[in-house]
């Protein structure tokens, strides 16, 4: 072998040795909690879900949000009508080995803003499409993930009168402070 050929072979061997050493050191040096690149068969996925709101309270909800993602306003629900439109997006991750906290913030009346943390229970459906928020008349809030068009209203309520449940507004009840922290102004 001539000297030039021997030098080329030696340089290629050295390059391959250094490249494999760098790759193995990079993998070992990665932080223990670091996310790896997602592969096609990776079981962990994120989903951007359509946000649906259901307002069973006596008052229109001026605005609501889930983990800081805006959900718009919610009219008072009636029959199977949720009371609001579909808004994009809330992100969830699958699989969910345990219930996850979700922070709901909403504007029930005038300049009052309330905040409540509720739990999203696993498992997620096979093909999650919607993130539902259900505001109940007693002040409780429930969240769920659904497939397809979303679930129907969980409560059948009497017809509404404009933006409230009752024509005589003194009959409307605001229980939003019962389970939530409420204050004047958005904070």
Tell me the layout of helices and strands.
Elements: H1 3-29, E1 45-55, E2 61-66, E3 69-74, E4 87-94, E5 100-106, E6 112-120, E7 130-135, E8 141-146, E9 181-184
Parallel strand pairs: 1-7
Antiparallel strand pairs: 1-4, 2-3, 2-5, 5-6, 6-9, 7-8
H and E string: HEEEEEEEEE
Q: Which strand order spans the largest sheet, edge to edge or round the barrel?
A: 3-2-5-6-9
What is the tally of helical segments? 1
Quote the distance from N terminus to C terminus: 78 Å
Number of E strands: 9
User: What is the rounded Rg?
Assistant: 26 Å
The major β-sheet equals: 5 strands, antiparallel
Identify the overall geometry: globular
Keywords:
187 residues, alpha+beta, 9 strands, globular
Structure description:
The protein has 187 residues and is an alpha+beta fold. It is built from one helix and nine strands; from the N terminus they run αβββββββββ. The radius of gyration is 26 Å and the shape is globular.
Write a brief caption for the model:
The protein is of the alpha+beta class. It contains 1 helix and 9 strands; from the N terminus they run αβββββββββ. 22% of the residues are buried.
